[in-house]
Amino acid sequence: MALHAGYSRWCYNWGLSLWNALYKDGYKPNIRKLREVFTNHTKPLYPWMKNLSSKVYQYAFINLGEAFKRFFKGLGKYPKFKKKGKSDSFTIDNCGKLIELNGWNHKLPFIGIVKTCEPIEAKTKKNHY
């Protein structure tokens, strides 16, 4: 899970860095274009990314886009770079299928079996991104 959290943080920070550079050069960046550049030009340069879920980087860009939307509406501060070990997180989904969490052991997509300290019973919700 630490690899996926690091991947998410790396993508978010990469997107924020590129956004800042483009804006400084007089362009008006958007998340769709950043994700397109990442997918077509940056991701192929890093072979280690192929071993992780592509959903992680997609959600990292969605989160960055939401941060900018909140900023432009005056509901939040300008997005900051994420730091390792501080609220590490990532989002992963099961390609539209529900993930059921029942008991102590749970099978997560791309991660495998995860054991919890307490039994959990829940179903994931569908995201509509």
Explain how this protein is built:
With 129 residues, this protein is α+β, with helices and mostly antiparallel strands. The chain has two domains: 2-72; 93-124, no CATH class. Helices cover 42% and strands 16% of the residues. It has helices at 2-24, 31-42, 54-72, and strands at 100-108, 112-123. A two-stranded antiparallel sheet has the order 1-2. Helix 1 crosses helix 3 (54-72). The chain is globular, with a radius of gyration of 16 Å. The protein starts with a helix and ends in a 6-residue tail after the last strand. 17% of the residues are buried. The model has no long low-confidence stretch (mean pLDDT 88).
The total domain count is 2
Topology as H/E string?
Answer: HHHEE
Low-confidence stretches: none
Q: What general form does the structure show?
A: globular
Strand content: 15-25%
Radius of gyration computed on alpha carbons = 16 Å
Number of E-state strands: 2
Q: Main sheet?
A: 2 strands, antiparallel
Sheet with most strands: strand arrangement: 1-2
* Average pLDDT taken over every residue: 88
Going by helix content, strand content and strand pairing, the class is alpha+beta
Number of helices: 3
- Proportion of helical residues: 40-55%
End-to-end Cα distance? 23 Å
Task: Summarize the entry for a quick read.
This protein is of the alpha+beta class and 129 residues long. It is built from 3 helices and 2 strands, in the order αααββ.
Jot down its keywords.
alpha+beta, two-stranded antiparallel sheet, single chain, globular
Ordered list of secondary-structure elements with their pairings:
Blueprint: H1 2-24, H2 31-42, H3 54-72, E1 100-108, E2 112-123
Antiparallel strand pairs: 1-2
